[in-house]
Amino acid sequence: MTRAPTNLLNVRTLLLSCLKDLNPAAVGIVGDSAHRGGYHCGSDRVVTNDYSVVESPRDQSGLTLDASGLDVGSFTVRSGGLTHDLRSFSVWCVQQCAAGAADTRDIREIIYSADGKVVRRWDRLGKRTTGDNSHLWHTHFSFFRDSTKAGRDQTPLFRRYLTGIGILEDHMDRAEFLGHLKAALTDEGIATQLRAIPWQYVGGGIPKDMSTLGVLNEVLSTTRSTAAKVGADLVDEPAIIAGVLAGLSPQRLSEALKTAGLTPEAIAAAVPPDIAQQVVDELTARLST
């Protein structure tokens, strides 16, 4: 029987807890009993040549009894003097996907309407551009099935939206911050993960007396042995580790940040304004030593 996976249930719970105007019946994961085919179905309900299975190796390898789709219905919320609704939320999510944000990498498609008149589809595989008219009043998210099978946390994108509109405060504590990074770095290249670090939390739950590089130092130190134990194929591990750990040379730091596609300004742009200049000054000083 098709089931709702924990990671998507967590997204559902997050949205319902923060968007009080959102009807629980309008936030669905598993299709009704008549539903056949598509991401709202698990392996017991897929059909021949089901697009949610055959079009991507990620879906083929990830097929289980779990559904891998999420519907979000209409809502309206006022925050910070602005009105936010399903349409603005959907457009924001699509923009994040199109921009290649790290927390969208598991989203295969979003079917939505920006104006309540025309249905559009953002498709990572470029297969389709529209959908049926039911998406005029609800937005559909499809997640690659391998990410659902792995139980990967899908809340970061939605937390980022809720934080951005002022509904949710940054409250990730230090242990959770390091835990997420530790888990990610065991199966991803370090350079890739440097791009995905949730820098906005560095100035939140992380102790103020711990410098930005100090946090990164601790993250990489705690993940290095774990990554080695699981035989992870890290991207240029020696250069990245050497470039970030305390006592690094300016040249090595420069190489590490360059490999990760980062600049001090790029990192600062993602952190709270009150510590942004501190980040720029610290990294720039290390690079110019």
In a few lines, what is going on in this structure?
With 289 residues, this protein is of the alpha+beta class. The protein has helices at 6-18, 51-54, 57-62, 86-98, 145-149, 155-164, 174-185, 190-196, 212-229, 237-244, 250-259, 264-269, 273-288; strands at residues 27-28, 69-73, 76-79, 82-85, 107-113, 119-123, 138-143. It is globular and about 60 Å long.
Description:
The structure is a single chain. The protein is of the alpha+beta class. It has 2 domains: 6-164, no CATH class; 174-288, no CATH class. It is 44% helix and 11% strand. The protein has helices spanning 6-18, 51-54, 57-62, 86-98, 145-149, 155-164, 174-185, 190-196, 212-229, 237-244, 250-259, 264-269, 273-288; strands at 27-28, 69-73, 76-79, 82-85, 107-113, 119-123, 138-143. The strands form 2 sheets. Strands 1-2-7-5-6 form a 5-stranded antiparallel beta sheet. Strands 3-4 form a two-stranded antiparallel ribbon. A hairpin with a 2-residue loop joins strand 3 and strand 4. Mean pLDDT is 75; it is low at 180-213 and 222-248.
